[in-house]
Amino acid sequence: MLNSARNILITSLVVAIAAGGGGYAYFHKSAKPTLTYLHTTVKKGDLAKVITATGNVASPTTANLSFGTSGKVTKVNVAVGDQVKKGQVLATLDMQALQNAVATAQASLHSAQAGLQALQNGPTDASLAAQQAAVDKALSDLGTAQSNLQTAKQNADQGYLQSQLNAATQSVQTAQANYDAISKAGDATQMTFAKAQLDNATTNYKTALSQLNNLAQLQQQAATAQTAVDTAQRNYDLAVIQLNQLKQPALQTDIDQKQASVQSAQIAFQNAQLNLSQGSLTAPFDGVITNVVPHEGEQIGGSSTAISVMTTENGLQITVPVDDSDISSVKAGQQSIITLDSLPGVNFTGKVSIIAPVGTSTNGITTFPVTIALSASDPNIKRLIPGQNTNVSIVVDSKTGVLTVPDAAIQGQGKNKYVQVYQSATTPPKSVQIQTGLDDDRNTEVISGLTEGQEIVVGTRAAGGSNAGGSNRATTGTGGLGGGGIGGIGGGGFGGGGGGRGGTITTVPKGGGN
After folding, report:
1. What integer is the mean pLDDT of 328-354?
2. Residue 91: what are its φ and ψ, rounded to 5°?
3. What 3-state class would DSSP assign to 97?
4. What is the pLDDT of residue 393?
């Protein structure tokens, strides 16, 4: 009975499980998703490695004109867009100011030439007499300075000042005694005379006492007087030297110096004449005015661009910055494709014409200017206008008729690169090592390891999962658990209520392991 009851109970549980949650057994049988291999055919094609950059259309013959001399603009004869002919006057400066500068420079030149001639001719009687008078005056000034120094030194001598004070003291005492005696006698006339003597003696005493008390100041005056003597002596010596030199024939060094002054004045005169000739700005060739900077009445510097003119007779060009990591791949003569956002669907062709030998660094990034010469025979060339923004693709390498595979199919890195050769829907792909060549960032050349027509895997897709085809990543997906039932792949539950947890995506980027 017990065994029979136990069997009945087990059977009931099995039935209950099958009825209420029998999906559990199904889950274990079908939880592993089925992968679909996304594959493509190995085929021959063309590859092109390009470097892209942006730049502006420009004329290869553009002249930024400046006057070459500063001045006030008095006339502007052109505006932007005007057609001009070679030699046409475009603008002028204040010619009167330039003519005055020429006259001043010419006067300086004549003065320098006269000085040279006078030196070569030697001194005149008048110049000798004038220099002799200068010597005599310097000698007189020296004598006066020496006399003043002697007086200053005496006044600054402490012993002398003390003796003067003693004598003044004695004079005051004598005058006081005399005045006292006459006062007792009562003689009014004599008293007046005695009083005057006493006052005079008192004044001399005060003076002597003041000088002794101001000894430091008097000594400073003596030092100043000594400086005056030294200066007067130098002036006299110089006057004598100049007189002696005047009497001597001119030295060759002096003649050379005067000749140098004449040459300098001659250059200044020529420069003034050149500035006068640059007062008018003329067109260097037939062309179109692209920029006019000054207005009439404005001051302008000699090096500042005043007017710009260009010609398109020699074609157009574009200069683009190329990163230093790419510049070694750029060579003169390489083909370039040019497009403009303003001209959709229109392609222009050109060639690399100039590669700058020196780069430019900005914020730690170094680029090299590369100039693209546009083909003058392009039928659409007349649709371009200097200044337009362009997108430039420089073809640095290309191959035609080579085996190619999508970059998404390649795994591995360095020399060890692999692809998965497709076998069948139910057979896992076979890993094959390949040797690669040119890569245009979308497709890669296969040198060895594959043949044309083979099928290779570019990704995988789990049933109901994400499709990785067409990307550069291989993907796989797994299902989740749905509410109340068995989780479907990337979607709702199988036979259960509510949405299931979506498929989980695993990615393998290009260059990773196989």
Report:
1. 93
2. -160, 160
3. helix
4. 94
